[in-house]
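so my prof wants the structure for this chain in the tokens format not the other one, which i didnt know existed until like an hour ago. anyway here's the sequence
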Amino acid sequence: MVDLSNYPYPSYESSKAAGGILAAVIGISMIAWIFQSIQIRFTPRRPLILLLVSHLTVFVHLVLRAALSTENRNSRAGFTATSFLIVIGMRAIIIANYDFLTQVGNLKKWMTRAIAIGPVLVAVTSAILMAPANTSSYSADTRDRSFRLRQASSVMVLILTVAFYPIWFATKAMKHMTKLAIILLIISSISCLFVSIYLVITSVDVYYVGSNDQEFWFYVFQFTPIAIALLTWTILHPKRTLEPKPEPPSSPDESMKPISINI
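here's what i got, hopefully its the right format
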């Protein structure tokens, strides 16, 4: 029989030192990200903003871990805030991975729209499911529903991360990528896949309780992959990994004009 008396709250004592140090690391990465993004005038806009949101939400999550007492963290408001921030931070990286594909090569309009909109809808839906999952977790009568909603949300994220690879292959975007861009997407996507598998495992009651006994499990299996992805994006910023798309000729006639040479 699984002891769910403390569900959904963690039973460990958060390390304020660890939270503060890691918040500083993500904060430095965020400053470097903003500085490099300003240099290229936040173009392309969507992936740069998505990664800024991810940096910011993960940074605030860690600050709250370092600042909140165990009592405040294990309140409804504290738990909801910290959970929501890490949920948004991870999903923003996944969407940025997809959006990066639309920034290379010349995809058809329908394909660009599908890649830009589809992952957002799935990610947002999975995040929305976490709201009733958390609400249902506070009552013993609705805990089963809470775990079912948590599992549905986690499976959606896992499907989204796995689907990235066949979509990447189908777009043939790799042909138009630099080596650094390929390395960036490989590291970022694998990091997200690692977290999504962990979330599916911990959506089962026995593993959820076990993972909340020690803060170690959060830092190793959830925070570390996210931090690796964010730091990789900062180091391999699109300003050095994303080549500008060639501008099409202003008109078909102009591109067909013969070149005259004066002798």
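also thought this was worth mentioning. The chain has one domain: 16-242.
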